[in-house]
């Protein structure tokens, strides 16, 4: 199926030209980009410790990643405009968000790359949170490959409470694993745990 455009094509063309500057500025080191499929629907599942994480993932990804973002961000005027142009869509963090789930499944069928944070929110520095069950529910309803990603260092560069990133303070490492083999008939809570464990092991 041909993809329906839901983000700024000109914006992403410009972004892909300038992002090497941000990669160097933020001292991002990445391995495993070959594990992200060049085309077709896929899910990027990453740990989450900083608001910088979605930005960094789109710095290193060979294709645009459309993120589920907490609905509160869409109430901030300038930021809301920017993330909409990047293709982000809102999700409610408390309980199951059926609308966001349907949106994600539609985008996956149309061939987009969706970014999710199984923990549902930022973890404390150097730690991991338990995954949300909704992630497993989403994965159980699609055959799209799930690519585990582990990010380290963003919580040093842009910790919770900071107004601006502390550029150059720490190297940011991104490790991208091979697609996870998942039994999609399993309980969705177990699927969530399995995905989180694969992220931790990277």
UniProtKB/TrEMBL annotation:
InterPro entries per UniProt: AGP_acyltrans (IPR004552), Plipid/glycerol_acylTrfase (IPR002123)
Enzyme class: transferase
EC annotation from Swiss-Prot or TrEMBL: 2.3.1.51
CDD domains cross-referenced by the UniProt entry: LPLAT_AGPAT-like (cd07989)
UniProt keyword terms in alphabetical order: Acyltransferase, Lipid biosynthesis, Lipid metabolism, Phospholipid biosynthesis, Phospholipid metabolism, Transferase
Pfam families: Acyltransferase
SMART domains with a match to the protein in the record: PlsC
Reaction catalyzed: a 1-acyl-sn-glycero-3-phosphate + an acyl-CoA = a 1,2-diacyl-sn-glycero-3-phosphate + CoA
Phospholipid/glycerol acyltransferase domain ranges (all copies): 42-154
Pathway assignment: Phospholipid metabolism; CDP-diacylglycerol biosynthesis; CDP-diacylglycerol from sn-glycerol 3-phosphate: step 2/3; Lipid metabolism
Superkingdom of origin: Bacteria
One GO MF term attached to the UniProt entry: acyltransferase activity
Similarity comment: Belongs to the 1-acyl-sn-glycerol-3-phosphate acyltransferase family.
NCBIfam families membership: AGP_acyltrn
UniProt domain comment: The HXXXXD motif is essential for acyltransferase activity and may constitute the binding site for the phosphate moiety of the glycerol-3-phosphate.
Full protein name: 1-acyl-sn-glycerol-3-phosphate acyltransferase
Lineage of source species: Bacteria, Pseudomonadati, Aquificota, Aquificia, Aquificales
